[in-house]
Amino acid sequence: MVKTDIEKFDLTQIPLSSEKRIGSIFREGEIKYDRNNWRKGVGNLKYQLERANHALKHLKTYIHLLEHGEYIGELKDGKREDDLAKVGWFVATQCEIERLEENYEDSDPEPKLENDTNKEEEKQKEEKVVKENVFVKALKAL
Question: Largest CB tally within 10 Å, which of 6, 26, 93, 102?
């Protein structure tokens, strides 16, 4: 194998069962709040801290279960919540929020995506070329 053939990440190592559990939390949120509601956290520190605190509650609930064999979390329809999947949901969404915030400006209502940034750079280059051409034509006219 050539070194360039090695990806920086390997999605095949993420267990499908874990993805399904975390995916069920996304579905739960979609039904309760709306699809991709978690994106409201981009540029919103209060939201992010609230979600981090909630994830920490689920992690502590799971740790208590491991240490004491007693579930102290909420029961839904007689079943315990999937606390680890809820922590995984937070980690996944927070990673994406951080990525989106790299291109986020407070003045923009929506985060800028990578393609938008590239388009803006191209537009600025085109405007610069046009200005340079106008300047060259003006010099030649003298």
Answer: 93
Assess whether 90 and 30 both reside in one domain. yes
Residue 2 maps to a domain: no
Do both 99 and 130 map to the same domain?
no
In this structure, what token pair is assigned to residue 19? 């993805």
Helix or strand run (H / E) with residue 75: strand 75-76
Say whether both 24 and 85 belong to one domain.
Answer: yes
Around Cβ 13, how many Cβ atoms within 10 Å?
A: 6
The SS3 assignment for 57 reads: helix
How far is residue 79's CA from residue 73's CA, in Å, rounded to a whole number?
A: 10
Q: Which conformational region is residue 25 in: left (phi greater than 0), alpha (psi within -120 to 50 degrees), or beta? A: alpha
Q: Domain range for residue 51?
A: 8-111
pLDDT in tens, 51-78: 999 999 999 999 999 999 999 999 989 9
Query: In this structure, what are the phi and psi dihedrals at residue 29, rounded to the nearest 5 degrees?
Result: -65, -35
Q: Structure pTM? A: 0.68
Look up residue 44 and give its amino acid: N
Q: For 107-134, what is each residue's pLDDT tens digit? A: 444 555 555 556 677 777 776 666 666 6
Q: Are 72 and 64 in contact (CB under 8 A)?
A: yes
